[in-house]
Amino acid sequence: MATKSFTTEYQFTSKSVASLIKTIEMQEKSNHSICKPNNKKIAIVKDSNRIIEIIESYK
Question: Is the pTM of this model over 0.85?
């Protein structure tokens, strides 16, 4: 259970409120999609050596 309210947890100043309002307004006006289309093909990999190679490539 929360013990502090939103306004007491986050102290707002006139400068921070202005930027917060601007950010909210820009977000509301945004028409772009957050998720970009994924053009990559998906392949099922069952070979354990290939799986290890894929995992190692991300390190």
Answer: no
Runs of H (alpha helix) within 1-59: 6-9, 14-29, 48-57
Q: What is the mean pLDDT of residues 37-57?
A: 84
Give the DSSP letter of residue 58: T
Task: Kindly indicate the confidence band of residue 44, based on its pLDDT and cuts at 50, 70 and 90.
Answer: confident
Question: Cβ distance 21 to 29 under 8 Å?
Answer: no
Q: What is the dihedral of CA 4, 23, 17, 19, to 10 degrees?
A: 130
Asked if 45 and 51 touch (Cβ cutoff 8 Å), the reply is yes
